[in-house]
Amino acid sequence: MLSVEDLYVRFRTYAGVVHAVNGMTFDVRQGEIFGLVGETGCGKTVTGFAVLRMVPSPGEIVRGRINFRGEDLLQKSETEMQSVRGGRIAMIFQDPSTSLNPVFSIGSQVTRVIRQHVSVGQEEARQRALEMFEAVGLPDPAGVLRAYPHELSGGMQQRAMIALALSSGAELLIADEPTTALDVTIQAQILALLTELQEKQGVSILLITHDLAVVAETCHRVGVAYAGDIVEMGEVNDVLQRMKHPYTQGLLAALPRPTQRGRSLQSIEGSVPDGVHLPPGCPFHPRCPQVMDICRMEEPPLFSVGAEEHVAACYLYGQENAA
Amino acid sequence: MSAAPLLETRGLTKHFASRRGLLSRRRKWVRALDRADLSINRQETLGVVGESGCGKTTLGRAIMRLIQPTSGEVLFEGQDIVPLSNRELRHYRRDMQMVFQSPYSSFNPRFSVMSSITEPLRTHTRLHGEALVSRAHELLEQAGMPGEILYRYPHEFSGGQLQRIAIARALALNPKFIVLDEPTSALDVSVQAQIINLLQKLQREFELTYLFITHDLSVVQHISDRIAVMYLGKVVELSTTEIIFSEPQHPYTQALLASAPSLDPELRRERIILPGGVPDPANPPPGCSFHPRCPMVMPVCSQIEPAFINIGHGHKVACHLVGGEQENPPTV
Amino acid sequence: MEPTIEWPDAETAQRTARFHELGLMLQAFRRDPLAVISLVVIIFFILAAIFAPSLTPYPEQGRGTPNILEKFQPPSRTHPLGTDYLGRDVWARLLFGGRSSLSIGFLVVFAASVIGIPLGAIAGYYGGWIDDILMRITDIFLAFPPLLLAIAIAAALGASFVNAMIAIAFTWWPWYARLVRAQTLSLREEYFIEAARSIGVSDANIIVRHILPNVLTPVLVQVTMDIGSAILTGAAISFIGLGIQPPAPEWGKMISTGRIYFIERPWFAGSAGAAIFLVTLAFNLLGDAVRDVVDPRTRRAVA
Predict the structure, then answer these.
(1) Is A186 on the interface with B (CB under 8 A)?
(2) How far is residue A168's CA from residue A295's CA, in Å, rounded to a whole number?
(3) Which of A61, B300, C81, C193 is geometrically suited to a Cys-Cys bond with C91, CB 3.0 to 4.6 A?
(4) CA distances from A153 to A197, A294, B52, C223 (A)
(5) Where does residue A41 fall: left (phi above 0), alpha (psi -120 to 50 degrees), or beta otherwise?
(6) How far is residue C235's CA from residue A111's CA, in Å, rounded to a whole number?
């Protein structure tokens, strides 16, 4: 459904050129939930924006292809993209309270979006909005139509956002940290909703998050991002139980687990490189406990590491020019 | 442990007036804290968990006397510090310190690291000159930061580094007790691990007592000896970490634990999805404030507020289901 | 687990840290041509005022000594801007007038800040009834158009240079108090203020060392722009005769006395008007530039 190939995004700033995304390559398949996971600065959010060609300035997409149902989105004109956004690919963001316009009722915002993408009258648009509100589990959909964003709680706002996003029939939903700002019990509700949308309505979801546990419970496949590129990708159980890349291993070892109570957590030495000064070769090599000479010189491609879909960008699993 | 607890709160309450202006007759009271009862033993870590509006942050601030409690007592080493004046409180400020959630906002952007971490020393001691600088170096070293950064400014550091500096500042006066308000929430996972390790190491080395406030269940399980679960200003359950996670008694605790996503498939619990959201703290439901969402609600729950009682071995719960009458509390 | 950081030695670090921020600001400033021009213009005016006696061959005329024989002379080689209705060299009048006009501007703003800033900080920090009282007081002042209020006070006090300054400063301080109060209110929520309180730092120390230095930034912008406005207000007050008394020169007064002759002999009212215009404009532009430069977000323009 969506395939990002060799994406490069950079930002020209006062402090230098920030290489936010460096060769990001992954795909989201029809009807699945794909998790793009990583820490701050790994480029996951920028990638999400790049798919919709909404990278904020001074950012620019300098290379790559973004294939959506056979068409390269980077080749489209701005007008064509406007019908894609919302109509075919939709996005929801971390903080729902800032995504909704506070001075308009929710109903007016949703109906406007519907009518922009589908030529229907006001009444029909309202009907569709009501259906969407029910589908996302909002109690009292008619009340929500009339309500203003600040009258709803965080969880309900996020549901309204999801309804808004899917109201025009989008097939792909990009969710950028949709539950990070929400309480744990509400997060459970929203994740359940997303799973339901995927199962019942066949919506494909690109879930961008830093929370590995969320990925473990919600996603089918996952891509681990570091310094703007994917370092490991595959089915969720393969990647999170039988992780191969040293970064993934380090990340999982750093998480507090009930099985490790009382023991020190293992952390990864050093810190995430800033986008301006990326190390040569493999971007993780300065922090890697298993670094080899070749890692310092050449950036590793993705090697197959066992299970069919499971790949990792690490020379531990192959020589250069292999796979 | 029969030794007296280092810190105790009894009936700690804080009501905020919802802003209605001077002339409005009807004022809404937000019960941010409602008769919270806690105790923390020496050298132990008490974790406080809850969702937004539960009052855990208010609890931390009330204990530190950054806000004035409406009623109740905070006993530090047996002495109630609530009625003390600012002058009398100064003495206790040396023993109680706080680390905040956002490392970036924790420092005056115009103060160098040196100025920031020595502020406690300059306020309470006569230390100056060479001695002050060497104490600063010592503090940085304890927090795992190199001494060369003394004259840098906060904006030059990452979140994790700043949080280390914040910890260094908290150690300056050799406190006994530190309130940590979501100290790792703003940090990446690998940095969080470093900070947690540091906090545990310092606790052993300096015999510190921690009040660790967080919303992250895996972190609280890792670092706490005992845990208090809060909902809408009240402590609803309090016990050791093992028991909270293996045999939670309060339905809210059960739901909370079940909601948290887990990496280990074996540890995943049966999802309990709570309906609705946290009610408005200015308008809490009558009786037990959790009753509208409780999967095991009984008629009495909407009428009478459950007492916070000890059901054995220091395990305290506020729920009619485990009120003294019931022989066998329902198992999870 | 030590984080690996490479830092230069402490001395270099100290130097670079302190000047890093300043350096960035100066750099951004230099890039803005309008900013540089305004600064140059202002410096020019200030120097001209300071060195007034040396910049004209007719210093006594500048101060007020009449020269009736040469009255109403158009600009010529001996009098580059002509002479006024008492024969005094206009350029000299302009220079000495500049002294009065500029000093009103600087002194008024200084006085208003000295009164308004601490009051605003105290009101914002403590809130409660202190804040309420201050707000009601400033409300009263802000309800009047500033110029009108200044004129009323100056009239009540009697026409003189000093009284004009007092009057304007009196109407000006509430703006600073309000500005600082707003900044203080938002700053009060920052964790480092709570940290200072939890350490036991006294309120006074918190206000002086933590709050004031961090609110100075917008105040600086406001001050820069206000100097121009204060000069303008001072000129306005003198224009109607409540400020500087003749024979002491002042630009506003020069316009006032010169306007009846303006059609046929525009040079003295006109040059005074031009001077006021230039100075006010320069301060405004400088204020804009300072604001752009000092705010780290607008400063980081695309390279």
Answers:
(1) yes
(2) 47
(3) C81
(4) 21, 52, 11, 43
(5) left
(6) 58
Q: What is the mean pLDDT of the segment spanning B8-30?
A: 73
> Which among A186, A250, A258 has CB closest to B221?
A258
Tens-digit pLDDT profile for residues A96-155: 878 888 888 888 888 888 888 878 888 888 888 888 888 888 888 888 888 888 888 888
Instruction: Please report all neighbours of A, defined by 3+ CB atom pairs within 8 A.
Output: B, C
B218 part of contact set with chain A, CB < 8 Å? yes
- Do B271 and A186 count as a contact with CB atoms less than 8 A apart? no
Beta strands at A59-68 and A71-72: parallel, antiparallel or unpaired: antiparallel
pTM of the model: 0.82
Q: Tokens at residue C35, please?
A: 């900013």
Q: Assess contact for B225 and B240: CB atoms under 8 A.
A: yes
C-alpha neighbours within 13 Å on the C-beta side of residue C99: 18
Query: Which residues of chain B make contact with C300, given a CB cutoff of 8 A?
Result: none
> Furthest-apart CA pair in chain B: how many Å?
69
Rounded to a whole number, what is the largest CA-CA distance in chain A? 66
Identify the chains in contact with B, defined as 3+ C-beta pairs within 8 A. Answer: A, C
State how far the alpha carbon of C271 is from the alpha carbons of B53, C38, C100, C244, C267, in Å.
66, 19, 16, 18, 6
- Taking phi over 0 as left and psi of -120 to 50 as alpha, with beta for the rest, A56 belongs to beta
pLDDT at C23: 65
Q: Does residue B261 belong to the interface with chain A, where contact is any CB pair within 8 Å?
A: yes
Mark A235-254 as b/e (b = at least 16 C-beta within 10 Å).
bbebbbeebbbbbbbbbbbb
Write the residue in B158, B267, B273 that is nearest to A189 by C-beta.
B273
* Amino acid at the residue B168: A
Which of A154, A212, A268 is opposite residue B263, by nearest beta carbon?
A: A212
Chain B residues in contact with C190 by the CB 8 A cut-off are 105
Is the alpha carbon torsion for B225, B229, B233, B236 positive or negative? negative
Q: Dihedral sign, CA of A209, A213, A218, A219?
A: positive
Cα–Cα distance for residue pair B332/A213, rounded to 1 Å: 22
Calculate ∠ Cα B18-B22-B24, nearest 5°. 70
Structure confidence at residue B97 (pLDDT): 93
Sign of the Cα torsion B237, B243, B244, B247 reads negative
In whole angstroms, give the CA distance from residue A236 to residue A212. Answer: 10
| Predicted local confidence at residue C21, as pLDDT | 60
Q: Judge: C198–B98 Cβ closer than 8 Å, yes or no.
A: yes
What confidence score (pLDDT) does residue C222 get?
Answer: 86
Task: Give chain A as a 3 state SS string.
Answer: CEEEEEEEEEEEECCEEEEEEEEEEEEECCCCEEEEECCCCCCHHHHHHHHCCCCCCCEEEEEEEEEECCEEHHHCCHHHHHHHECCCEEEECCCHHHHCCCCCCHHHHHHHHHHHHCCCCHHHHHHHHHHHHHHCCCCCHHHHHHCCHHHCCHHHHHHHHHHHHHCCCCCEEEEECCCCCCCHHHHHHHHHHHHHHHHHHCCEEEEEECCHHHHHHHCCEEEEEECCEEEEEEEHHHHHHCCCCHHHHHHHHHCCCHHHCCCCCCCCCCCCCCCCCCCCCCCCHHHCCCCCHHHHHCCCCCEECCCCCCEECCHHHCCCCCC
> How many residues are given for chain B?
332
Name the closest residue on chain C to residue A58, using Cα atoms.
C302
The span from the CA of B57 to the CA of B49, in Å, is 10
Amino acid A72 reads D
Spatial CA neighbour of C290 closest among C5, C34, C76, C19: C34
Under 8 Å between Cβ of C114 and C286: no
Phi, psi for B212 (deg, rounded to 5): -110, 110
Residue appearing with tokens 């730092």: C201
Select the residue of C1, C3, C300 nearest A13 (Cβ to Cβ): C300
